[in-house]
Design brief:
- It is a single chain.
- The chain is mostly helical.
- The radius of gyration is 36 Å and the shape is rod-shaped.
- The N and C termini lie far apart (about 120 Å).
- The relative contact order is 0.04.
Amino acid sequence: MTFEERIDKLTERHEALAQTVELIGHDIRDLGHKVDKMADNVDKLTGNVSKLVEVTNQDAENIRRLASIVESHENRINRLEGGAQ
């Protein structure tokens, strides 16, 4: 193999490596954009979960209040029924 052939082969390899690096760079940028979008989605989901927890806590409080009202009404009915006999 002559010196010129070696230089040509090295030049080809260099160009192939440069193209590979460029493609990898594009892939990394694309992945970066996807990660950014995923982070935005996680932020949105976190906000939604926080709202859901808040609503669930409010629902639980409302159920406790309703249970207390039901218990009061049952006690009242029992007193009225017991007093009527």
